[in-house]
Amino acid sequence: DRAHAGAFERAAGGTVFLDELGELPLPMQPKLLRALDRMEYRRVGGESNAPIRARFLAATNRDLVQMVNDGTFRDDLYFRIAVTEIAIPPLRERRDDIPLLARHFVEQLQADGRGEPLDAQTMQALVQHSWPGNVRELKNAVHRVALLGEPPVNPGAKRMSVGAPTDSEGLPFDCERPYKEARDALLALFSARYAQQMLERSNGSVAGAARLAGVDRMTFYRMMKKADE
């Protein structure tokens, strides 16, 4: 019942960031292609088009070329988007970026009057961690440390290491604990290992891992948190 400025209009003079482009449903792809080809948009309920005065930047953890070959991503949209490509290595391969990113996340918190600076020991632990969830996982860890005072990740331990005894099937259990506690510990271990495998299959993309697991992002984040406990 009133005019509303959409993302393309609000981005005039700036940049439209298309995150997780590989997750765009196939029926939506020709609409984006049309807008990029014509560099025009039309407001919902509008009667005329207006020019788009913005640049576009897209990001994805998916192999779009393979998706084109599989028929799940339009080749014309791919070639329209892929004017210049920049491959960003996973965070574990650019550890020099970790302190810069960690300080940035803390400064964002402190701008709102929250959070404590990270000490050298915490920063070293962050640098040594493998970060299968990449920058999103790092941001969550920094928030836990700066806001809640929780200890940083343990860089010396393997992410899914288990010291509990196992039965003949290789399942860890602790017969010294009550049934419910032992069962809950085993379920938490399964969730952590499962989340790790899904992250590896999706090249560190939380959205992709959640999709493979058949759960929403918040559920998958809870599974990831169990991996750090």
Give a short overview.
This protein is mostly helical.
List the helices and strands and how they pair.
Elements: H1 7-10, E1 15-18, H2 29-38, E2 40-41, E3 50-51, E4 55-58, H3 64-70, H4 75-81, H5 97-111, H6 120-128, H7 134-148, H8 179-201, H9 206-213, H10 217-228
Parallel strand pairs: 1-4
Antiparallel strand pairs: 2-3
- Nearest-integer average pLDDT: 82
Specify the number of helices: 10
Instruction: Tell me the helix content.
Output: 40-55%
Q: Which structural category do the helix and sheet elements fall into? A: mainly alpha
Portion in beta strands: 5-15%
Q: What best-fitting shape do the alpha-carbon axes yield?
A: globular
Strands, total number: 4
Stretches where pLDDT is under 50 for at least 5 consecutive residues are 154-170
Distance between the termini: 49 Å
Which strand order does the major sheet show? 1-4
What do these coordinates show?
This protein has 229 residues and is mainly α. Helix content is 48%, strand content 5%. It has 10 helices and 4 strands. The strands form 2 sheets. Strands 1-4 form a two-stranded parallel ribbon. Helix 2 packs across helix 4 and helix 5 (97-111) crosses helix 7. The radius of gyration is 22 Å and the shape is globular.
